[in-house]
Amino acid sequence: MTSLRYLKWPLIVTFAGLALGAWLGWATTGTVEGMLTVFVICIVLSVLEISLSFDNAIVNANKLKQMTPIWQKRFLTWGILIAVFGMRVIFPLAIVAIAARIGPIEAVKLAIAEPDQYAAIMHDAHLGIAAFGGTFLMMVALSFFFDEHKEIHWVRMVESRVSRFAAIRGVEIAFVLTLALFFAAFLDGDARATFISAALYGLLTYLVVDVMGNLLDRAEETMSDAARGGLGAFLYLEVLDASFSFDGVIGAFALTQNLFVIAIGLGIGAMYVRSMTIMLVERGTLTEYKFLEHGAFYAILILSVIMYAQAIVHVPELLTGLGGATIIGVAFWSSVRHARAAAPVAE
């Protein structure tokens, strides 16, 4: 019964969202078949979002437990509005508005009246989005592994060696730039320039957010109790959420070109991710399962490389989601085995 309380709002949003999706299907097609199609697409999109963002929930929980209660509450209220409406509605509209050089109102009209053209513009912008998001996520993952103070290792043979290089200043940046240039070498002309430019902006965004977070942390004593220990982490988590959302938003257009159906489906999934984050924090699951966090960062690293690879070849979103879920599952299993081995034997 205790676990069900975490599902209260996700279930409410699920029922409301699916009902709205079914109505939207009926309103746009006027047929039962159309209504059921949109209904099923909303379900598939929500599952896609959950599978792609489970590692996001783990990383969020790790950062969230370090925040003050008031900033935790702000992230789980304001943050959900930004995640659902900002990234699932405003972000696609902004991409189309910038790419097509039209205003936001015209972008909304385009999404309603000409969804195929709207989807085509989104797909054309995928290269830059993949490079930006892939770079940011790769830096997030590498900052976890390139840590000279890191004491807990899951894949010890790899992680213990990697952590030794953390003392070398800028090693993560050098690694990311090398990989970005490697993938860019497979592209030509404008595509190569777009990829490299977006990757640099992704790197710059990570560094700016990281610097801001450090500055805010150092200024904790001069802040009010309400802001202390939370603003820097809040900004970091919002940018991280945005980076995780790129893949899901772009992948959703493979199922439907309707912006509002995408917003409903991904919004439902986002609510479950938020609930998983709250559960992980309140139950101390990351402490109980020692390697779960490691699995999440491995999944993030692989996702970032996949986003780079998508500049060259198409990688099915199902494969991306299942890959991350599998790694986290193995990390969970390893954590359980470790806990059992470390438990004292009853006499």
UniProtKB/TrEMBL annotation:
Highest rank taxon of the organism: Bacteria
UniProt entry tagged with the keyword Transmembrane helix: yes
Key word Cell membrane present: no
Any Pfam family hit: DUF475
Annotated transmembrane regions: 37-54, 75-100, 125-146, 166-187, 252-273, 294-312, 318-336
Keywords for this protein: Membrane, Transmembrane, Transmembrane helix
Name of the protein: Integral membrane protein, YkoY family
